[in-house]
Amino acid sequence: METTRMHLSSPRARRLAASATAVALGATIAAAAALGAAPANAASADVTDASLSWSLSNEANAGAYFGGCNFLSAGIAGNSGASAPWTATNPSPGYAASAGNVSIAYPKAAGGTSTPTFATKCQTGDGTTVRPGTTTAGVLTLAAGTGTVDAAAGTADIAWDGGFTVAFYGGLTYWSAEDPELHVAADGTGELTATVSGYAASRDGGSWAPLTPRTVHLATLTDVEVTSSGITVSPDWQGVEPASATSLNKTNADWGSWPADFVDFQNETGQSSYWYTSGANDAAAKKPQPISIAYTAAEAPTPEPTEPSEPGTPEPTTEPSEPGTPEPTTEPSEPGTPEPTTEPSEPGTPEPTTGPTTGPTTEPTTPAPSISTGGTTTFTVGDSVPLRAEGLPAASEYSIVMHSDPVVLGTVTTDADGAFATSVVIPTGTPAGAHTIAVESSDGTAVVSLAITVTADGTVVVDPIDTTTAVTTGAAVNTGGTVSGTSALPWIGLSAFGVVALGSVAFIAYRRRVTQQD
C-alpha cells in the first residue's frame, strides 16, 4: 500500500499526516489480525491427488434382459465392429477393472470391495449374479486429479487424466468418457465435463458407426460445498427436462433427467431413455448417484504483511523532521523515548519481533470429528451412500459399522489431514426403523456417527441435522444432537476493534503533544 507523502512544513500538516497514519494503521492491523486467525483453507490451494468416486447410476450397473448386464469398464474401449455383446477378446482394448488412473470396484455387503473380472462383471461383490432391477453398485474411481481449490471462496478447478467406458446390454451399445474436468463457481454451481465418444448403435443389433467425439456435461451441480479435504454432491436431476428427451415421464414425483447435451449424445448411442425417467417408477434406477471427491489441499503461502509504522511517528529521513528535533540516523523515535534498534514501538509496549499481531499466527486447532453425506439426505436401500469425515487422527484405520445389529459396511484409512471420503451401500435386507452408521476404532469405540431411518418402502433418510458438524464423539452414538463449539469469529472482531482503538489512543496522545509543542 502506498501512502501520499506530505511536506510537514506546518503543525496542521503534521497533525493531518498523523491522523492519516493512525487510521491507515488501524485498518492494516485489523486486516492482519483477521488474516492471522483465518483457517488453513482460507487461500487457494494446489491439489495433486484428487480422487473422484462415482457409480454414475444404478441402471449403469444393473442386470439386463440381454447380454447379462450393464457395466462400467476402465479405459477407452476399442471398436467391436458391431452391435453385439462383448467377448473376452473383442473389443480390444476391452473389459478392464483398471487402466492408468482409473479403476472399478464392487462393494461387498459385509464391507470392503472386490475387483471384478470379465467373467464376474455381472456379479455383485459377494458373487451373486445380478438380474434386471438389481445392481452391482460398481464404483468408478479416477485418481491423481490435479488443480486448485479455494474452500473460503467455495471454488474448485480439478482435471483428471484417463477415461472409462459404459456398456449396456453386455456391449450392444457403449460409449466412453475421457479426461473429466470439474469446475465449481463461488455461487455453489458447478459442472463435470468430459470428452465423450462411442458408436451409433441400436439394441436390436442394427446400425453401428463411430460417433464424432465431443465435450458434454456428465453432471451439472448446485449447492456444492467445497472443503479443504473434499467435495460430496448429488448431481442435478429432479425437474431437468431436455428437449430431446422425447419419452420423458413426469408421473413420478422424482422425475428428471441427466444434462441436455448428455442426453442428446445418448440419442445417437441408443441409450437415451436410460438417462431420464421414461417409466412411472424408474427414477431411483436412472438418477445420478452422488459424486465423492477427496484430496489433500496444499495451501499456498500467505504473503507476509508489510511492517506498519507506529501511529503518530514522524516521517523518516526522506521527510523533514520536527523542528528543533535532532535528525535521527535511521527513523525518528517518539520525543523523549529512547531510540529503538529497529522500528519504534508503542511506549511501554514490548517490541514485536516481526509485525504486530492480535491473534494466533500458527496453524488453527484441529476441528472436532465430523461426518457428512454431502448435500443429499435421502437415498434408497442398495444405493451407494457417500461419506466424508474429518477431524480424526491422521493415517488411522476405522471400520464403518451400521447398528443396531452390527453390520460392517467397509473400512477406511484417514489421510494426512485426518480425513477420508468413501461410499457405502445400505444392505437391501435392512429392516425398517432407526439405525446408526458409526465410524469405529479397532476397540469398537464410535468416534463419529450418523443416525438414519429406513422406511417401509426402502427409503433411507439421514437424520435431518447439520451433518457438517460433529454429531458424536467418544463411545456414545448419535441421537440426533450436535456437538457445540466455540466460534473464533467474535474473538477476531474484538481483537481487530481493540487494535483500531489502540491506534486511536496513540494518535490522540500524539496530537496532544504536538498541540503543546505548537
What does this structure look like?
The chain has 518 residues and is α+β, with helices and mostly antiparallel strands. 13% of the residues lie in helices and 28% in strands. It contains four helices and 24 strands. It has helices spanning 11-36, 260-269, 283-286, 489-517; strands at residues 45-54, 71-74, 98-99, 102-107, 113-114, 139-150, 155-159, 163-168, 173-184, 190-201, 208-210, 214-221, 230-233, 291-294, 297-299, 370-372, 378-380, 384-390, 397-403, 407-413, 420-425, 433-440, 446-454, 459-462. The chain has a 15-stranded antiparallel β-sheet that branches. Helix 1 (11-36) packs antiparallel against helix 4. The chain is globular, with a radius of gyration of 31 Å. It starts with 10 loop residues before the first helix and ends with a helix. The model is unreliable at 1-42, 344-360 and 465-518 (pLDDT under 50).
Terminal CA distance reads 31 Å
The tally of beta strands, per DSSP, is 24
Strand content: 25-35%
Radius of gyration: 31 Å
Residue windows where pLDDT falls under 50 for at least 5 positions: 1-42, 344-360, 465-518
Number of helical segments with 4 or more residues: 4
Largest sheet: 15 strands, antiparallel
The best one-word shape is globular
Helix-and-strand structural type: alpha+beta
Average pLDDT level: 77
- Helix content estimate: 10-25%
Order of helices and strands: HEEEEEEEEEEEEEHHEEEEEEEEEEEH
Produce the secondary structure layout.
Layout: H1 11-36, E1 45-54, E2 71-74, E3 98-99, E4 102-107, E5 113-114, E6 139-150, E7 155-159, E8 163-168, E9 173-184, E10 190-201, E11 208-210, E12 214-221, E13 230-233, H2 260-269, H3 283-286, E14 291-294, E15 297-299, E16 370-372, E17 378-380, E18 384-390, E19 397-403, E20 407-413, E21 420-425, E22 433-440, E23 446-454, E24 459-462, H4 489-517
Antiparallel strand pairs: 1-6, 1-14, 1-15, 2-8, 3-4, 4-5, 4-6, 6-7, 7-9, 8-9, 9-10, 10-11, 10-12, 13-14, 16-18, 17-24, 18-21, 19-20, 19-22, 22-23, 23-24
Helix pairs in contact: 1-4
